[in-house]
Structure formats: structure tokens, C-alpha cells
Amino acid sequence: MITILFFCRGVLCYSALMIIRIVEDSINLDELREIAKEYYIDMIKGVADISKEIIAVGGEYHMDANMKILENGSVQSDVWGFNILFDRPKDERIEFTSLINIRPLAGNRSMEVEDEEIRKKMSDIINRKII
Amino acid sequence: MANLGSEVNRIFILKEKGLLKEADGAYYRAMGIVEKILSHPDLEGRTGEIKILKDYLEQSMISDRARFLKKEWEGYFSPYANRLFPAN
Q1: Which of A12, A16, A43, B27 has its CA 20 to 30 A from that of B10?
Q2: Rounded average pLDDT over A107-117
């Protein structure tokens, strides 16, 4: 059996397996790329809380960052998944695709965030947080 | 995950060709991989996403949006494949 040990310094939480960072203020692209090295190198997974206007980045699955942001006080209905692709131009670098976005009861039947208003909110938050 | 991605992609390729029995075979193999991932010790305590994946894959099999789903699943699995076979 593998035990996952979590410990946190401020809002930066580590485990034996991964780093998830909750970004309440900002994060620069170099820091983001550093976290991305743990799994995908040229991209990073993340979740955005469109109500609290914070994001969490890192982890192997969107659910990893999702769980971390919920532990931080977010509500699931406000939290949506995204990917950042570093090699794309800034206005094309966000993908609004995640399994955690499938919410038929909320009208979202696919992995993609279908509501343009939610996508706009996510973009605004993500682009403000990543400097 | 990359192996699972290959099997899921195969499901939709076979469906497009009308080979439904073979698509079912790929589906059952994919579900076998899902079960192995779910019971893997590295995932202990964080199986949430794989459970969603399993449910959505079950729904995908009975959906009539095969072309859309093929593209959607390809997008989902591409980071795992890229991680396994990086371009550089």
C-alpha cells in the first residue's frame, strides 16, 4: 500500500506524488512551466472557481486540482476544468475540456464547457492569474 | 492511460466502419483497463476522475454522436499519449 503524504506551505500543497498550486493572486509562466514538468511538460491541467475567482493548477488529472480547490472552500458548481497549452499564442492557449465539466443537470453534456459566458469568465480569471 | 486511449479510439473507428461486434470487443477491453487503473495503488484515494471516465464511456457506447465523441475522447487522451511519446 502506498500512503500519500500531504503537506502545505501557504497555499502550495505537496504530496508524495504531485504538486497542486492554488493561485489566489498570480503565478508567472515560468512557475507554471515548472509545475507542468511533473506530468505533461508542454501543458498543465487546472480548474477555475468562477465565483471566488481563483484557480488551482497541476496534478495528473483535473480531479486532483478539483479536490484541492474544494478542500480550500470552493463549491463544485462553480469549478470548471481547463488545460493551458504553453506552445500556443496567448489567445488560443486555454482548452475548456475536462471530464469534470460533464454536468447534464447543469446543461453541460460534454467535456467542453458549452456555456460561452462561463468560458469568458474562466478566460478572464485564468489570464489575470497567469502573468 | 495511453493504452486506454488507444482502445477507446479503436471503439469509435470500428463503430464508424459499422463493425459493431468488434467495437463491443474494444469496449470490453477498455473497461478491463479502466478496472485495472481503478485498483492501481497509485490511484488510491483519487479515483474520482476515472469513475467519471467509466460512466461517460458507458454513455458514449449508447450515444448516436459517435463522430463527436471520437474527437472528444481523442482530445482527452492526447496529453497522456504525448507524455508517453514526446515529440522532442
Answers
A1: A43
A2: 97
pLDDT tens digit string along A20-41? Answer: 999 999 999 999 999 999 999 9
C-alpha grid cell for residue B50? 476515472
Q: Sheet harboring A43-49: ordered strands across?
A: A7-9, A12-14, A19-23, A54-57, A43-49, A79-85, A94-95
Query: Looking at this protein, which amino acid is placed at residue A85?
Result: L
Q: How far is B82 from chain A (nearest CA, A)?
A: 8
Q: Is residue A48 part of a domain?
A: yes
* ipTM of the prediction: 0.90
Select from B87, B88, B85, B86 the least CA-distant residue to B6.
Answer: B85
Domain that holds residue A47: 23-129
pLDDT band at residue B87 under the 50/70/90 scheme: low
Interface A-B, measured as beta-carbon pairs within 8 A, has a size of: 53
In chain A, which residue's Cα lies nearest the Cα of B84? Answer: A40
Is position A14 within any domain? no
Asked if B79's CB is within 8 angstroms of A95's CB, the reply is: no
* Better pLDDT: B42 or A68: A68
| Structural domain count, chain A | 1
* Chain centre distance of CA A52: 13
pTM, 2 dp? 0.89
Q: Report yes or no: A113 and A96 within 8 Å, Cβ to Cβ.
A: yes
In a domain, A39, yes or no: yes
